[in-house]
Structures are given as C-alpha cells and as structure tokens.
Amino acid sequence: MKKIGILGSTGSIGTQTLAIVRNNEDLQVAALAAGSNVAKLEEQIREFSPAVAALWEEKAADELRIRVADTNTKVLCGMEGLLEIAVMEEIEVFVTAVVGMIGIKPTIAAIEAGKTIALANKETLVTAGHLIMPLAAQRKVPIFPVDSEHSAIFQSMHGENKERISKILLTASGGPFRGRSSADLKGVTVEDALNHPNWAMGRKITVDSATLVNKGLEVIEAKWLFGVEPEKIQVVVHPQSIIHSMVEYVDGGIMAQLGMPDMKLPIQYALFYPDRRPMEGKKVDFYTLSSLTFEKPDTETFKGLAMAYKAIELGGSMPTVYNAANERAVALFLDRRLRFLEIYDLIEGAMEQHKTVCNPSVEEILEAEAETYEYINAYGNAHRRD
After folding, report:
1. Are residues 15 and 118 in the same domain?
2. Which of this chain's residues are annotated to bind NADPH (predicted)?
3. What residues form the annotated binding site for NADPH?
4. Which of 13, 66, 299, 354 is the most buried (most CB within 10 A)?
5. Are 167 and 121 contained in the same domain?
6. Whole-angstrom Cα distance, residue 6 to residue 265?
C-alpha cells in the first residue's frame, strides 16, 4: 500500500489525483490539504478517511473541525499544518498541487524528510529552483513532474545520455487567442480567456495559457528540472495538444511523448513510476487524427513568454517577481478590474522596478513576492473599475 499526501486536494490536479486513487486499490490517502473549500474537503475526508487534513484559513479550519467531528481525521490549519503534513512518517509520495508560493516551504520540508515529490506546483521551481534541486540531489529524493509537458520531457529522456541533449521542444496549445493580434485582444472578456480549446484546468492557469505566461513559467521550471540552459529550450505551438513535448539529441533524433490532453496520465505516471498502470479514457486514434501542426509562438502579441526568458536572464529573485506579478494581475483580471493586455503591463512594470537579489534565500524570495504584491495592489487600487 502506497500512502500519499496531497497539497491542493480540492483543485484541478488534486481532484484528478483522487480520481486515480479511486481506481487503484494499492493507493491510500494519508493527508489532504486545501485553501478554504470546506465543503469539498469534507466530502474528500468522508470518502478517503485521511489521518490528517488541513485548510489554509483558520476560520475555515474551525468550521471543518465541527463538520467532521464524527470522523477520526485531525484538522490542522495554516503553514504549520502544511509543514506537519509534509513530514508525516507514513507518507511516501507528497503531491504538491497547490497554486502559489505557499508550496515552497512544505516541498522543502518533504524533501528533507525523504519523501518522493510529485510536483505540480510551478512556483516552487520557478522561484526557488536554485534551492530545491540541489537539496533534492543531496537527499537523493526524486522529483517527478506532474505537468503534462514536463512529464513528456522526463519520459523522452529515459535511457538517454542527458549530456547529448541538443534542445528541449516544449509544446504549447497556443490558448484560446492563438493567431489574434494585439488589436483583437483589447476587448476580450474573462469568459473568452477561460474558454480553452483543449484542456480543462483551473481559472488562473487557463488565463496563464491565454497569455502564454504559463509557457514562460514552464520554461523556467524546465531549466531547473532538467538542468538545461534557457537557450536550449524552444517553445513550439502545437494546437492539437497531442504531442506533449519533445527532446532533440545531438544526432538529430527527437523523442516525443504523445497522448490525449488528459492530466490524469502524467499524474498517474508520477505516482507509480516506473510502472505504467492501465487507465480508462479516450486514446489517440491515428486513423481519425487528421493532422499535427506546429507554429512559432507570437511573442510580440503574447509578451508573457518573452518576459519569462528575460526573467531567467536576470536570474536571482526576478523569476519570483515575474510569477508574483502575474499571479496578482490575473486575479485582478478575473475580478474584472483589469483588461487582458494590462496583465503584461503590470508584469513588465513590476520587473522594471525590482532590484534583483542574487541567489535569494526562501525569506528573500518571500520578501520579493510581498514587494511585488504591494506594487500590483497599488496599481489595482489606482485603476479600480467600480
């Protein structure tokens, strides 16, 4: 029986992870953690009977304690709760699927406790990759990527000499606005941005896909996961989302991982690596698949990708600013207090006003995040659309 803990259990990745648990009797949930969704976490507690559950917000945790008082689940809250879960002795695999930088400290704690990491929290490596990867190597802790693209890259490296990699080809669907100009994007709505053509994801990551910021975050994450310099990471727009990413080697050979756009495949692969378990669902049918097409990304219109490469180039705390500015800008957009194209303006402004800290500690990373939040909040308050 393999016991797992899930950080972000009520979100898209968390709920799909639990769907995999339902279909595999040798998986057991030892702990669940979420933000503030009391009702959803209560449902999960009653179905999976974890020893421990945690909510980020104290008020929500108090309500959950009352609602599950008839169970044997211990309810925790805040960062202390997440850190307690991260080091639980019985947990073998720690699934980090929470959105945001609150995933950094629990991931570090889990690595120090020797847990296998199934990583779906981009912010952890984007902002603290220089701390996380050396620590994982020191503790001999495997980090299995859950992102479909990074899982594809990981699978495409099996049995290969990593020193012989020519480049990583990171695929992107192009999002709902692929092919549009900046003029076309001036009046797009929240509903337009959330209408992704291929993937069913959370609201924030769906907007990130529309701006190509999500792909920028993935470029930074790939640099740390696979030890490849940014100039060897090439983004390729592939609208069908069948090829999830590729690796080109020095002899010109390219390895690729293909499949339907379904996040359960990379999640299950991370949970059972190196085994491959049967999984129900639609499979790729090459007889009916009409074509696979590829395009160069439009980085002039969708500036989020170019900004990511700039953040990598500047290094240090700048990727934190890039990530934090986007996080708050997207929240303002979803709250209808910001236009779609202004997301780029806020990221650019935050990066320009930041003085980069080289090799930042966790505390310095969080300080850079707080500074960026202050900048974005001031902008938001000055440009309210009540």
Report:
1. yes
2. 10-13, 35, 37, 121, 123, 202
3. 10-13, 35, 37, 121, 123, 202
4. 13
5. no
6. 17
